[in-house]
Design brief:
Elements lengths: L11 H11 L10 H11 L3 H17 L3 E3 L6 H10 L4 E3 L10 E5 L5 H8 L5 E5 L5 H8 L3 E5 L3 E6 L6 E4 L3
Parallel strand pairs: 1-2, 1-3, 3-4, 5-7
Antiparallel strand pairs: 4-6, 5-6
Length: about 170
């Protein structure tokens, strides 16, 4: 778990992901945090969900996807985090349209593994996964032609980045 703070992360892109998205430090104040905090205060969201929503916000701001699939049943805090990151981004809520999005944010086995494998093979596409089923992160990494996977036992961020050697780091997400 030493990679959680950037130690031993040799890829410059992966290091920036860890330092800017996963563990940005206290010196950063993101513009979308006010929107997220307003929702947290209005409905008493858990600290864990708030932390994940803020990281999701930073990830979207870092990657700038033009389109995002976000399932209907997911905590509304994630929708707030997404819209606070980029109001011009198209957010798709129907699972049948997920394949047409640059980024898929999903949980559990909501979208079949085979569809996720097809998605991650396309350059510039990414997957953000909460409560990843056992073995799925490894299967998606195997399907990834080039790029980055940051994962923990329960969550994963997988990014197809062209001309980047395929690399995976385990850290606390």
């Amino acid at each position: 778990m030493r990679h959680t703070y950037g130690f031993g992360v040799h890829s410059p892109f992966a290091y920036r992901m860890v330092k800017d998205v996963v563990r940005p430090g206290r010196e950063y104040s993101w513009y979308g945090y006010d929107d997220i905090d307003a929702v947290v205060n209005s409905r008493k969201a858990s600290v864990k969900i708030e932390r994940h929503a803020k990281m999701f916000h930073r990830l979207i701001a870092f990657l700038h996807p033009r389109s995002l699939f976000l399932p209907l049943g997911i905590d509304p805090l994630f929708h707030t985090a997404a819209t606070a990151s980029d109001s011009r981004m198209r957010i798709e809520r129907k699972p049948k349209n997920a394949a047409g999005c640059e980024m898929i944010a999903t949980h559990d086995s909501f979208i079949p593994l085979d569809r996720l494998k097809e998605h991650i093979r396309q350059p510039g596409h990414s997957i953000v996964f909460m409560n990843v089923p056992s073995g799925w992160a490894d299967a998606l990494f195997s399907a990834l032609p080039e790029g980055l996977m940051l994962h923990s036992p329960h969550n994963a961020i997988i990014i197809h980045r062209q001309e980047m050697m395929k690399v995976a780091y385990t850290l606390l997400l």
